[in-house]
Design brief:
disordered N terminus, mainly beta, 227 residues, 10% helix, four-stranded mixed sheet, five-stranded mixed sheet, 33% strand, globular, disordered C terminus
């Protein structure tokens, strides 16, 4: 996934006062020196236009997020939502499914204004593996009871960097010839407040079943992650 950055530029203005030619009045206090120009805080990157992301951008971004944490802090292995904010980017919010190890219920705080991206089921491997996987992949998602559109993304080449000790292999070297595929959901930024998100997915080869219930709190500020 491409990295988007903005650079904040500031231009300060210095006002010079001409000196008075007459002798200063000793009974009059000298005016205070002008306050220095303040540097404006750098603005965060704007939220990604999630609807315009390509298959490669979606799958590259999510997989490198999922593979970027060690096993003890992995959002994919997390069963409570404690590591929901681990490794998140500033302009999109990723949510994790599971590796198929039973139903999971997570509580997660999401910053307001960020689009959300997650798979119902996904895998990486060879392009031929994706063809078999997609033949049986299925799933659904709802937000507050309303169904969300699931999007099939076929075999797409990605460059995967895995942090040593992550759940998806112990290789720090980038994999140049990895292919990803799956059923994906992209969400526009959810409204502030509490939301119930359900994720269901399954496939037969390799066999996987994903069952996750998220209790989301979308907030304007404050700490992210589990509450």
């Amino acid at each position: 996934m491409t990295s988007w950055r903005r650079t904040a530029l500031s231009i300060g203005a210095l006002l010079l006062a001409t000196a008075c030619t007459s002798a200063p009045d000793r009974n009059t206090a000298a005016p205070p020196p002008p306050a220095p120009a303040e540097e404006p805080a750098e603005s965060p990157s704007p939220p990604l236009a999630v609807r315009s992301l390509t298959s490669a951008e979606m799958q590259y971004g999510w997989w490198n997020w999922a593979a970027g944490s060690t096993e003890d802090r992995s959002p994919v292995l997390d069963r409570s939502g404690r590591w929901c904010a681990e490794g998140q980017h500033e302009n999109i919010w990723y949510l994790a499914g599971t590796t198929g190890g039973g139903a999971v219920e997570r509580t997660c705080t999401v910053p307001v204004g960020l689009p959300v991206l997650f798979p119902l089921v996904t895998m990486f491997g060879e392009a031929s593996d994706c063809e078999t996987f997609m033949d049986t992949a299925k799933g659904s998602a709802t937000l507050d009871g309303a169904p969300l559109a699931a999007e099939p993304l076929g075999a797409t080449r990605i460059k995967l960097r895995r942090t040593p000790g992550n759940p998806f292999g112990d290789s720090a070297a980038p994999s140049e010839n990895t292919w990803s595929c799956g059923l994906w959901v992209r969400m526009d930024p959810p409204a502030p407040g509490s939301h119930e998100l359900t994720i269901r997915g399954e496939a037969k080869d390799p066999a996987i079943k994903v069952t996750v219930d998220y209790h989301l709190r979308v907030v304007a500020s404050g700490p992210t992650g589990a509450v």
